[in-house]
Amino acid sequence: MSHQPYPIEFAIKLADTAGAIARTYFGTPLDIISKDDESPVTKADREIEQTLRTLIETERPDDGILGEEFGIKDSKNGLTWVIDPIDGTKSFTISRPTFGTLIGLCQDEKPILGIIDQPITKERWIGQSGLPTTYNGKPVTTRKCPDLKQAIFGTGSPSQISDTDSTRFTRIEKATRYAVLQGDCYFYGLMANGFLDIIVEDHLGIYDFIALVPVIEGAGGKITDWQGNSKTLNGNPSLLACGNAELHTQLLEIL
């Protein structure tokens, strides 16, 4: 069953709403509350997600919701919104604008729409299945880097991807041009714009990656888990994103 056209205007409304809240908190001291998994969360995270959930429940009551802070509401129509109110909370709390709000939409298990929104620098990437990714309204494409030795590699931190294999980060770093760290969701926007070629991450929640899939794929890249499987609502916590399929194949071998 097709749900075309996708509710893109509503998704944009969600991003605009989240951005307005984030801007009121950015650059001000915030208490960081440790959740059960010890990840940082702030009042801003919770206010953004609760506000977006209320909008969805009011205007699209049959849609499901999966959020970082307040759990799951089951879908009645096969559509599920996936929300990360502030991806990169640590960056947000120290006024480092590599954070963003991630808003994704799945049809059954498949991501079909994604927004990466950086409300401070006012940068927004929108990906929709079957359409080119846009950056502030203009189509963008990944860099077609065929040579692994010229590829720029990004990750959250070496320890994030090396805890189960102590040489993994070193293998990738040696095979590529150089590595950059701690870019949060902003790295994926950079990839869509052609400034970053490879991203490797692990220990991600579903809300961390669903919105990224349509953005990267719509820009010409490839994004899977470390086994080459598609990223879906049932996806595992590993992630490999590359600007093109050739690099992706090479990285799967290194991983």
Which blocks of ≥5 consecutive residues have pLDDT under 50?
A: none
**Percent of residues in beta strands:** 25-35%
So, CATH architecture of the largest domain? 2-Layer Sandwich
Order of helices and strands: HEEHEEEHEEEEEEHHEHEHHEEH
> What percentage of residues falls in helices of 4 or more residues?
25-40%
Category by helix and strand content? alpha+beta
Count every helix, treating DSSP H or I runs of 4 or more residues as helices.
9
CATH fold annotation of the largest domain: Fructose-1,6-Bisphosphatase, Chain A, domain 1
> Main sheet: which strands, in order across?
4-3-5-6-7-8-9-10
CATH superfamily of the largest domain: Fructose-1,6-Bisphosphatase, subunit A, domain 1
Please tell me the overall pLDDT. 92
Q: For this structure, what is the CATH class of the largest domain?
A: Alpha Beta
Number of strands: 15
Main pleated sheet: 8 strands, mixed
Tally of structural domains? 2
The separation of the N and C termini measures 37 Å
- Gross morphology is globular
Summary tags:
8-stranded mixed sheet; globular; 2 domains; 255 residues; 9 helices; Fructose-1,6-Bisphosphatase, Chain A, domain 1; 5-stranded mixed sheet; alpha+beta; D-Maltodextrin-Binding Protein, domain 2
Element layout with pairings:
Blueprint: H1 8-25, E1 33-34, E2 40-41, H2 43-59, E3 64-67, E4 71-73, E5 79-87, H3 89-93, E6 100-107, E7 110-118, E8 123-128, E9 134-135, E10 138-139, E11 152-155, H4 158-162, H5 168-175, E12 178-181, H6 186-192, E13 198-201, H7 206-209, H8 212-218, E14 222-224, E15 239-242, H9 245-254
Parallel strand pairs: 3-5, 11-12, 11-13
Antiparallel strand pairs: 1-2, 3-4, 5-6, 6-7, 7-8, 8-9, 9-10, 13-15, 14-15
Helix pairs in contact: 1-2, 6-8
